[in-house]
Amino acid sequence: MIIGIPKEIKNNENRVAITPAGVETLVGAGHQVVIEKNAGAGSGISDEQYLAAGARMLDKPAEVYQAADMIMKVKEPLAEEYDLFKEGQVLFTYLHLAPEPELTRALLKKKVVGIAYETIQPEDGSLPLLTPMSEVAGRMSIQIAAQILEKPHGGKGVLMAGVPGVAPAKVTIVGGGMVGTNAAKIALGMGADVTILDKNPNRLRYLDDIFGARLKTLMSNSYNVKAAVAEADALIGAVLIPGARAPKIVTEEMVQAMQPGSVIVDVAIDQGGCVATVDRVTTHAEPTFIKYGVVHYSVANMPGAVARTSTFALTNVTLPYAAALANKGYEKAIKEDIALARGVNTIDGKVTYKAVAQALNLEY
Ligand code: NAD
Fold it and tell me: What number is the ipTM of this complex?
């Protein structure tokens, strides 16, 4: 099979869908890999590294789309890429079709086999191609909070770790899933005083088991959230209800009760945010705003700032699926793996993912 990797063109997207290790694996299995020149530059991967691993470099995106049986990307294709699809081509990427009727139409028209990273789901219900980005964002959230707590960034001038004789920062994390756990790990590692809230008692048991007495766990209810938010120097929003808008667990009054110069990092912003005062999505160029004296950070694509780490983390989990699609052909690969089958959003001119069909009012 010929696998093609175009350069990402979305604003500020520096990730790339394959690393030299991925090229070596696919080429070693007898496939050809064609990559658009400079595709890896934003992640610190040179054309020479791809060439040395066995890839062929092409000048233009159109050449990549033309040559390939399967396209691997990071973000959903943009309008200028729609005309480049080949009939029957496999497209393996984050697709997020529900809010994208134009893209969906383009995939249906060209009978593209659209396999979405975000809907690949094994029997256990996990979303393995979303997990690495939650790990990245969770870990980042604390280094961002630590920096914003510094006076020049608008914070109250508190050092996350404290020093001997001076208490460390108090960090409150709402939501103890993938993001929350990774945030807790870094905050504890820096020496902060950390409290985490979740509404799932089994999750709290797990967190208690792995972190021991250094981490305070609390059941998430409005009473406990109110108290933990009021005392926080840094608040991390990390709640998720799968498939739904994030619930506003932290109310406006709770934020008003925080001390001026405290920090809120609402990682759940990509699902609407779980803090009531987070009323906008911010960007890496202008990441914060101040409300009630509290510095708010609500960037929806946090991993984009650490493109290199994110590229390697993402491709670690996409490559085995890409290899299965290439080695077996997509028809056999999706027949044999329910996780991959759930990833298929479009095939042969039809939408095959219920939530997408419902959102776009299309036949399923
Ligand atoms: P997850 O499913 O692993 O964890 C969510 C946790 O929230 C679960 O443990 C759940 O029990 C808990 N929860 C649900 N309702 C709650 C409540 N009322 N109070 C307290 N806890 C509650 O999800 P995740 O991977 O940790 O992702 C969290 C959020 O971060 C998602 O919205 C995800 O899309 C987002 N995210 C954002 C970025 C970014 O760049 N901003 C990057 C990655 C992930």
Answer: 0.99
